[in-house]
Amino acid sequence: MGLLSWLVGGNDRQLAETSYSGRESASDRAARKRREGHRKSIARAARKAEQWEQQDRKRFGGGR
Questions:
Q1: Rounded to two decimals, what is the model's pTM?
Q2: Which of 2, 19, 26, 28 has the fewest CB within 10 Å, making it most exposed?
Q3: How far apart, in whole angstroms, are the C-alpha atoms of residue 1 and residue 59?
Q4: Where do the segments described as Disordered lie (predicted)?
């Protein structure tokens, strides 16, 4: 039975815990990448807003 035990199936959760322990799951990786993308876009928007504000102050003389 040991040779064909993979045909019968088994506890996928246990297999995942033992075979893939310490590795990031695909869904966790996707969520992390999404979060990183959101953070980058927020930082980029903040930089652009600050640049716009600086230009606006220079243009209208409010930079005191």
A1: 0.52
A2: 2
A3: 81
A4: 15-64
In the chain, domain spans:
29-63
Q: Give pLDDT tens digits along the chain (64 positions).
A: 566 666 776 777 777 777 777 888 889 999 999 999 999 999 999 999 999 999 999 998 865 5
CA distance 19 to 25: 12
- DSSP H helical ranges for the chain: 5-8, 12-19, 26-60
CA neighbor of 25 nearest in space, from 8, 37, 13, 36 = 13
Distances from the Cα of 62 to the Cαs of 52, 53, 54, 55, 57, in angstroms? 13, 10, 9, 10, 5
